[in-house]
Structure formats: C-alpha cells, structure tokens
Amino acid sequence: MTKKEQLIKDIQNLLNSYDTISQTAINSDLLKFMDEETLINIIGSLLDQKEASKESDIEWLEQFKKEIN
C-alpha cells in the first residue's frame, strides 16, 4: 500500500469513527488526484473537528497527528 493509499484509508477511517454517523465508503478514485499534502490537510481538518467535539479524546488525537507527520 502506498502512502497516498494509506492516507485515503485514514480519511475513511476517521469519517467512520463518529458514533452518530453511519459508515462511509469513499471512492478512492475521487481522492487519488490530490497530492499527499492535501490529503494530510484533510486528515488534519477532520482531526480538528473531532478534537473540538470530543474533549475526552484529545490525547488520542494528538498522538494520531504526530503519527501522520
């Protein structure tokens, strides 16, 4: 699996980590045209939203952010 494919998978996993939202399947072809930096920025935005909505998960989110950088 390439880094880009892993980033796309990470985006899908983040979207599916919300308890109140049903499972999401992303057509990876829609994200393949984006470069790695853009995909990382998407992940960062998703993490920021999750951080704001779930303060109890702050420690986990910070660790995840470190892993993608």
How many domain units? 1
Number of helices: 3
Q: Outline the biggest β-sheet.
A: none
Strand content: under 5%
- Compute the average pLDDT: 82
The SS-based structural class is mainly alpha
Distance between the termini: 18 Å
Oligomer: single chain
**N-to-C series of helices and strands:** HHH
Number of strands: 0
Radius of gyration based on Cα positions: 12 Å
Give the CA-based shape. globular
Helical fraction: 55-70%
Low-confidence stretches: none
What would your notes on this structure say?
This protein has one domain (3-68). The protein contains 3 helices and no strands. It is mainly α and 69 residues long.
List the SSEs and their pairings.
Elements: H1 3-15, H2 36-53, H3 58-68
List descriptors.
mainly alpha; 3 helices; 69 residues; globular
